[in-house]
Write a structure and sequence with these properties.
The complex is a heterodimer of chains A (148) and B (425).
Chain A lengths: L1 E4 L1 E4 L3 E7 L4 E2 H10 L24 E4 L2 E2 L4 H10 L6 E4 L5 H13 L7 E3 L3 H6 L5 E4 L4 E5 L1
Parallel strand pairs in A: 3-5, 4-6, 5-7, 7-8
Antiparallel strand pairs in A: 1-10, 2-8, 3-9, 9-10
Helix pairs in contact in A: 1-2, 2-3
Chain B lengths: L4 H7 L5 H15 L6 E3 L5 E3 L9 H12 L8 E3 L12 H11 L3 H11 L31 H9 L12 H8 L1 E3 L11 E7 L7 H12 L4 E4 L2 H4 L5 H17 L6 E2 L4 H6 L4 E10 L1 H9 L14 E9 L1 H18 L8 E5 L1 H8 L3 H7 L3 E3 L3 H4 L3 H4 L3 E3 L2 H6 L3 E2 L2 H10 L4
Parallel strand pairs in B: 2-3, 5-6, 5-8, 6-7, 9-10, 9-12, 10-11, 12-13
Antiparallel strand pairs in B: 1-4
The chains are: A alpha/beta (148), B alpha/beta (425).
């Protein structure tokens, strides 16, 4: 097991299986089809992301550098949370971007009964270490434990 | 974050619970970026990114209703992104059924919410609100609470306004309280370029392809682009602005660019020059081969990659009046060369409602109509945002549309060839 320490954007504790992308996560492209057409697994719909395309996102520990793409991104993330179709947590290697931060904050303030811990600044080493399927535990204080 | 007494009072709930939640959202959002304060919004109008009444987006309408029920409205009037449906755009029976009975069933409801919240008027629907005909054009140095990515990058880069790449919902929350957190692209430091991009092509680079290449490389960073003025000039005339509109939309959708500087052209680059380049800026050289590499790497996700196109969209982001005129000339000329009278593939040129009205008053409008091309105020992205369109071979010269849908990207010249003779020449 390896521990990483990041900065808490929205707090919470959760354990989930990792899905990993080393390229920017396009929130709209990833979620739009799944949310609109009731995909229960919320499979990633971003054709430009070979690492994630077709993989389920719901309930996963989404490990990413940052999000990219349309500025509906935060709104889409908020909707995913309100519809309970969100990842279990989002773990950013880099400083969080404005769209993901907005989505995380709006969900935290306006959605009752859903917690999606978001931690950023985990570092490049985090993304180099974590692999799909690894068990991830996020602590309230921003510590992220990764088990092989 | 240090708040003024007025801001703190709102956060403490002195003006009601809902407004306190709006303020809390903005404060938390700002704190994620170590913002030390909130600053006043100075633009006349706001612009919202969410224009679509998608049934599935009910959490958004619920939130808007909470604002309305609490008597909270936007402090600024606003424009909003394009409408998702237009009966002028070809759609089969099944598509119409899906659009009207399944997907956009909340459109009228949502538009009524927007009117109550502060929509400028019924025609204020376009991603290019900054066109003269639309009238929502901020000035240099104006602080904005916009969200639409292509509009934000245009406002920052071409108009010299100051706006972060805000998300939908954050946009309206800013104009409800009249403040935005001070960080990122609002600050002088955040507007410095951390990439130098050198254009070394042998011909004018395709705007949407160049923007895509830069967006994919620099992601959310600020590029300082050298050598592009050789191709698009040193004046922000209609042609240069249209080029930068399309270029910027591609940088923002293929990456996350919120601001670019074009040496000797965009306002801050012209004024401040190399002092805009941050120490240790990285370098990216773009030549013909690099653009070809980027284009060849786009995946084609049509079921049958050799299928004949069934529809063509040009105008994401919406076209300018000059672009509509230019496309009219080009289509007419190519049809004549090919011995055709009408386009051979259903083609839709999209533009803002007021731009289309201005176009209708020109002699170009009947000429374009004669070629069989349709004009529309629709958002092509929203039109294609369903599984029925995924099976449909649609072509486009928009890199944003390519990114978010199954539309296949071609350059403007290739599109012209395909729609006028099926691309046989």
């Amino acid at each position: 097991m390896k521990k990483f320490e990041g900065r808490v954007i929205t707090p919470g504790e959760v354990t989930a299986e990792a899905v990993v992308t080393k390229q920017g996560f396009n929130t709209l492209a990833s979620f739009q089809m799944a949310l609109q057409f009731g995909d229960k697994e919320v499979k990633c719909g971003d054709q430009n992301n070979e690492e994630l395309h077709g993989k389920p996102l719901i309930g996963k520990a989404l490990c990413l550098p940052q999000t990219i793409g349309s500025t509906t991104g935060g709104l889409v993330l908020y909707c995913a949370c309100a519809m309970k179709k969100n990842p279990a947590c989002m773990l950013f290697a880099n400083h969080i971007d404005s769209l993901a931060a907005a989505g995380a904050v709006i969900a935290d303030v306006w959605v009752d009964g859903v917690t999606m811990p978001v931690v950023d600044s985990l570092g490049e080493e985090f993304l180099n270490y974590v692999k799909d399927g690894m068990k991830i535990t996020v602590k309230e204080n921003g510590v992220v434990e990764v088990e092989d | 974050m240090i708040l003024t007494k007025e801001q703190q009072a709102i956060l403490d709930g002195e003006k009601g619970e809902t407004l306190a939640k709006v303020m809390k959202t903005l404060v938390m959002y700002g704190e994620a970026f170590e913002a030390e304060k909130l600053v006043p919004i100075t633009s006349k109008y706001n612009h919202l990114v969410t224009s679509f009444g998608l049934k599935v987006m009910s959490p958004v309408y619920d939130l808007m209703q909470q604002l309305l029920d609490a008597g909270v409205a936007s402090g600024q009037k606003f424009s909003v992104d394009p409408r998702p449906i237009d009966k002028n755009v070809p759609a089969n029976f099944l598509q119409n059924l899906v659009f009207n009975k399944f997907m956009y069933t909340k459109q009228n409801f949502y538009e009524k919410q927007l009117e109550k919240l502060g929509l400028i008027d019924k025609d204020a629907f376009s991603c290019t609100c900054y066109m003269d005909e639309m009238g929502n054009k901020p000035g240099k140095g104006d602080v904005l609470s916009w969200a639409e990515s292509s509009a934000v990058v245009y406002a920052n880069s071409v108009l010299g306004a100051r706006c972060n790449r805000n998300s939908g919902i954050i946009d309206i929350m800013g104009s409800i309280v009249g403040y935005v957190p001070y960080f990122g692209l609002l600050t002088d430091e955040g507007r410095k370029a951390t990439w130098i991009v050198k254009i070394q092509t042998t011909k004018k680079p395709e705007a949407q392809l160049l923007g895509s290449a830069i967006g994919m490389k620099v992601m959310e960073d600020v590029p300082f682009v050298r050598g592009l003025d050789k191709w698009i000039g040193n004046e922000l005339d209609d042609t240069a602005c249209a080029y930068l509109k399309d270029f910027g939309a591609a940088t923002a959708s293929n990456g996350a660019v919120g601001l670019y500087h074009i040496e000797n052209l965009t306002p801050e680059a012209a004024e401040l020059g190399e002092s805009l380049i941050a120490e240790g800026a990285k370098e990216y050289i773009i030549d013909d081969a690099e653009l070809e590499r980027v284009k060849n790497n786009y995946p084609v996700i049509w079921k049958n990659v050799d299928a004949s196109p069934k529809l063509c969209f040009v105008g994401c982001p919406h076209l300018s009046l000059e672009q509509l005129k230019s496309w009219t000339d080009s289509i007419e000329s190519e049809l004549k060369k090919n011995g055709e009278k009408k386009v051979v593939i259903p083609t839709v040129l999209t533009a803002a409602p007021n731009v289309l009205k201005a176009f209708e008053e020109t002699e170009y409008a009947p000429r374009l109509k004669a070629t069989g091309v349709i004009t529309s105020y629709i958002c092509p992205l929203m039109y294609m945002n369903n599984p029925l369109c995924k099976k449909m071979p649609v072509i486009t010269s928009s890199n944003k549309l390519r990114t978010y849908t199954s539309a296949r990207y071609y350059t403007d010249a290739e599109i012209l060839g395909i729609i006028t003779n099926g691309g046989k020449r």
